[in-house]
User: What shape does this take?
Amino acid sequence: MMKRIILIFLCLVTAYTVQAQEEKIEFEEFTLDNGLHVILHKDNSTPIVAVTVMYHVGAKNEEPGRSGFAHFFEHLLFEGTENIERGEFMSMVKAAGGALNANTTQDRTFYYEILPSNQLELGLYMESERMLHAKIDSIGVETQREVVKEEKRQRIDNVPYMSFQEEIFKRAFKKHPYRWTTIGSMEDLNAAKLEEFMEFYKEYYVPNNATLSIAGDIDIEETKELVKKYFAEIPEGDEPYRPNIVEPAMTAEVRDTIYDNIQLPAVFQAYRMPGQGTEDYYALNMLTTLLSGGPSARLQKKLVDEEQKALQVVAFPYALEDYGLFITLGLVNMGVPLNELEEGMNEEIKRVKTELVSEKEFQKVRNQIESDFVSSNAKVAGIAESLANYHVYFGDANLINTEIERYNKVTREDLRRVANKYLNPENRVVLYYLPKSAQSEGATNSGSEKGK
Assistant: This one.
């Protein structure tokens, strides 16, 4: 009963802001001799600690024909270690009153435990075990193959519209490994041999490819000693493979139709954009906020509220390390032809290309960006992840305090400039999502009556 109370307490306290908006996030960082980079943030306001490890490995580090490995390891590294029995990884953390999870992108894999602060050493022990003694054997591999297959069925195959990532990325990229999704191909995972998984672990899950970020109720000097105790003797690995592939510029619009198990048609537009951290990235990010950052944003106001062409229209940046996509999507309203919704979306893009946004609307976007920036660092887990992100992607963890300045440098003219530079038909993929019933009827540009 007491353990359950502690776990509930953790969930509650992590929901509250631990950093005031004007407060600088202090941290210390150092690198062990084996290459492990360590970042420590002390916050004694609540008795919890986030122990996180970010490995600089994602789907883009995979070889053609062997996609899905990084995401597969997100699961596999919970199987156990030489010193932690199979299935005990999660139960040990939960027994200590904590929670844990992991996630994978095209660029990195992130593991974390949120624990009562008196269990810091447990989190360090478990992450060091994961890094040095992971159990890569046939039982674990076969178990997780089935787990990943079921995840794909539940989260992608059987969820309306969720194939959009696969359908867009394979059309937007032809050479770069972004052309396949993080979950990868089930055929690739089925064909992979145990030795290949063991080699992948040996190459990427090494201290010199990892960032250990700890935030919460800690003593800095004591934590340094514990980090050295559990991680200093782990041997450094060889330099991991880093793709250096230049994707040719898009020169013509790619347009296609996807038939899915849906009721209402939708349109997806994806414009190629530069990677995160570039000057134009910040302007494009702000542009998506202008278009759909709230109920009064342009797309919602025009196409949903006024013209009632859509049930929902959103724009968002799919931010990645090497390249990104500026995505707009609309779910058509009943009785409206899909091409009319697309024309409406194009009109709003045309507006930002031809008209300078007003000072009032621009300030509103800035305020929302700042609010989102502060909110992302409102919990110790978020702070730990942000510190690791900034170090891994930019080599500068202090961007947790200063990145907002990069947004503040963006001008109204920059929004119009990047719209004209990137939001052009020859630089995009357009997908019409139609109900499967429309396929048998030979429809290619159907309105929503087809989805009834």
Observations:
- The chain has a mean pLDDT of 92.
